[in-house]
Amino acid sequence: MTRKTNLALAFTDEQAMILETAKGFCADRSDITAVRRLLGSDNGYSADIWAEMVGLGWTGIAIPEQYGGSELGIGSTLPLVESMGRNLLSTPYISTTIASQAILRGGSEQQKAKWLPLAAEGSIGTLALLDNEDWGATSTSCELSADFELQGTKLLVNDAAVADFFIVSANHSGTQVLVMVEASQLSQDALSSKLLIDETKRACNINFSGVTVSAEAILPQSEIALRDIKLLGALLNAAESTGSCAAALDLVVAYLTSRIQFGRLIGSYQSLKHPTVDILIGMDSARTLMYHAATLVGDQPLDQDAEIACRMAKAQATEALLYAGDRAIQFHGGMGFTYECDAQLYLRRALWSQHQYGDVYHHRTHLADLLLD
Amino acid sequence: MSNELEQQNELAELRAEVTDWIKHNKPADPGFLLPQTFMEVGSEQVLDFLREWQHKVWSAGYLGMAWPEKYGGRGLSAAHQNIVDAQMKLARVPICFNVIGLGWAGPLILDKGTDYEREKYLKGILNAEDIWCQGFSEPNHGSDLGSIQTRAARDGSDYVINGSKIWTTMGNYAKYMILLARTDSQSERKYNGLSFFLAPMDVEGVSTQPIQKLTGEYGFTETFFTDARIPADCIMGEEGQGWRIAMQTLQYERGAEAGAAGGISILSIVMNDLLKMAAEVEREGRPLLKDQVTRDNLVKLLIEEKALHLGEKRIGIPALCADYPNSLTLSGKLRGTEFYRRMRQYALTLQGAQGSLYVGDDEAVDGGFWQRAYLNNFSTTIGGGTSQVQANIVGEHVLGLPKD
After folding, report:
1. Owning domain of residue A281
2. Which residues of A touch B398 (CB under 8 A)?
3. Which helix (H) or strand (E) holds A169?
4. Alpha-carbon span A336 to A326, nearest angstrom
5. Whole-angstrom Cα distance, residue A153 to residue B235?
């Protein structure tokens, strides 16, 4: 119980460079007009921007050099993901990065050699983990039979419609495994797209029943990979949420310093000023914890300190963004109730985001086990 | 390089030496609650105990280690003192209570004082013979120092002081006060007419009235000056420089400028202390630590505590503070003091019915330690600018929101 608290926090020159470049890139490519233009689009993102990101080498940041990446580690993707969150820039980046991590951490040499270079070059991957509403579930109802036929449906698979490959969790010979499925293996009607509360995001339910894979499609180190990608997914989501929270704060500050009511700028009222400071403090804590986690996650299986850090980052970022989005609506008054007001984008992001890779109770329950027993 | 190695060895030796000293000299439980901060010295009994302890620490060579030898120090480095302080903190020995002297007046005198002043004051600060207090705040003005009304009028070789100060820590025990008073009432800008004095308390016309705190205990006084005459050479710097000197003094206290004599001034209470207590409380025959709601609340506090500590590190990484560069610095007091307030309040919730007992009851958990800790914590969320004022500062100076 009196375990030593890990307080590592470092930021490399490479990370600083990525942050600098990504900030400018995301602000330039994804201003609010561009974000809104994509809300009703089929895939929710711009293929041109995605191609540019691939061209900048960003899809290879966490992929080892031998597989065509720049081998900077998963922690170096966070400045980029935070910047994407800040400008609500949706791309299949998070999905693909986590899918690559699954292969890197759990795949065979053959799988790595085949898929990691493809991912670095822009092939899109995603995870199919969820069977029901419970992110905390340790079991799955999806089955991979002895002759390698899948049976079951996965829920809310991010970026499913554009994915080239899927990493699916399923029971096989008494254990849970991760298995690779290519888009071409799915039947015509396997995907049913879902209407998400966050209109910048895309997800489908996928019926994998009847898909037959080869024995080589199973990730040999599935157990470790499954554990780590859930934590890394939570961490990348925390980075994105932290960025969105900072943007929601900027939006609130801009309104509070321009809107006049009862003869005064409304930001002069302490009833608005003080909760806005609370948004800042929540965002600051989220960012601090997120980069602490970034410091601790390497290519090796995540240790307990890294697990604690990922879960804390996710719990804090979720709370911070939810509060920021909720207050952003309220502080815009009547305007905040309209679709036209950008505040809704952040609240919807928060409501979607909180259920990515486990909600606050899921993570705090695990943290309690790690910190209190 | 070999010099560096030599110093490393020397510091390692010091660490071992002080650890051993603490083992043999840490006082036994005196049977009354010892202060967590210097603002809780409310009785002669506590005063005598702490005075003896600080004298002992100084005699052993563990206080003022970086101050010159001729003024009672040891002429070593701040690194030496830091090693000692860290070990003292770890061992949870009593505080070195003469904080205004050690951390405020002392470094100021060392830095800006005359040789005469250094001779006269510094050793007494270290050996705890001369207790110092601070006279900045005044009744009805809180921490708004620009509104100071206490007058210092030059009369021959004296200044004549009139007015009153409030929240004077140990005002009734102090021999000297660092005093901020108005020497020029005509000054246009309200900070311009202030002067800074090293004022003796044992002159005619100075009286103190102890203030009973919400804990029922003492520790502060209101201090009254009625035609109190102090020698004119008590002034630090020139007339009108008081504000600047006061601000500089705050820099020592905050550690932003080197020079403080060291010694631990506060017994920190951390989440581990709360968890230890929670582990000993039972509900329905089950440790409270197994209760789901309690666990969630504790984890929330642990997350907050970790973010606080890590935030200190992030301040040192400008690339991670680019959008609001002074955010973590300016919100530090607000975040820290409010966290500790909530944490200490929750400790009393966790105690169940025992939580309604108070200091002095023989069944109070840890002698009422948490009760007193929670109530005293308000000195930090109120003193030095209330949390509400802090939130205004952050809102206006970090986020650029308009003044109200």
Report:
1. 223-372
2. 277, 280
3. strand A165-172
4. 10
5. 82
Torsion sign across C-alpha atoms B35, B39, B43, B44: positive
**Fold match between B2-97+109-126 and B271-397?**
no
Q: CA A306 to CA B365: how far, in whole Å?
A: 35
Instruction: Count CB-CB contacts under 10 A for residue A45.
Output: 21
Q: Does domain B132-253 match CATH 2.40.110.10?
A: yes
| Chain A residues closer than 8 Å to B302 by CB | 367, 371
Task: Find how far residue A15's CA is from the centre of its chain.
Answer: 18
Residues B14-33, buried b or exposed e (16+ Cβ, 10 A)? beebbeebbeeeeeeeeeeb
| Residue with the two structure tokens 């550690």 | B255
A331 located within any domain = yes
C-alpha distances in angstroms, A234 versus A139, A142, A354, A370?
A: 19, 22, 10, 17
Q: How far apart are CA B211 and CA B218, in angstroms?
A: 6
Contact B401 A284 (CB under 8 A): no
Q: Which residue has the tokens 């994915």?
A: A163
Which CATH number characterizes residue A253's domain? Answer: 1.20.140.10
Residue A52 is assigned to a structural domain of this protein:
no
Residue with tokens 């705040």: B137
A 188-247 → B contacts, CB under 8 A: 246
What is A237-268 written as a DSSP string? HHHHHHHHHHHHHHHHHHHHTT-EETTEEGGG
CA distances from B162 to A33, A285, B234 (A): 65, 47, 16
List of E strands, B279-362? 282-283, 286-287
Domain boundaries, chain B: 2-97+109-126, 132-253, 271-397
Residue A45 inside a domain? The answer is no
Is there a domain that residue A234 lies in? yes
Q: Do A315 and B303 touch (CB under 8 A)?
A: yes
For residues A293 and A310, the answer to whether their CB atoms sit within 8 Å is yes
The H-or-E segment that residue B199 falls in is: strand B194-200
pLDDT digits (tens, 9 = 90+) for B273-319: 999 999 988 888 888 999 999 999 999 999 999 999 999 999 999 99
Residues of B in contact with A264 (CB under 8 A): 402
Q: Are A208 and A190 in contact (CB under 8 A)?
A: yes
List the CATH code of the domain at B2-97+109-126: 1.10.540.10
Q: What pLDDT, on a 0 to 100 scale, did the predictor assign at position B141?
A: 73
Q: Which residues contact A111 (CB under 8 A, 6 or more apart)?
A: A103, A180, A216, A219
Number of domains present in the structure of chain A? 1
Q: Which residues of A touch B287 (CB under 8 A)?
A: none
Structure tokens at B345: 């309040």
Q: In chain A, what's the furthest Cα-to-Cα distance? A: 75
Chain B residue with CA closest to A15: the answer is: B319
Query: Is A82 in contact with A239 (CB distance < 8 Å)?
Result: yes
Task: Tell me the average pLDDT across A152-177.
Answer: 97
ipTM of the complex: 0.96
Contact across the interface for B401 and A5, Cβ inside 8 Å: no
pLDDT digits 0-9 by tens, A24-83 = 999 999 999 999 999 999 999 999 999 999 999 999 999 999 999 999 999 999 999 999
Whole-number Cα distances in Å, A103 to A41, A133, A220, A343, B366: 30, 25, 10, 37, 53
Residue A349 CA from chain centroid, whole number: 11
For domain B271-397, give the fold. Answer: Butyryl-CoA Dehydrogenase, subunit A; domain 3 (1.20.140)
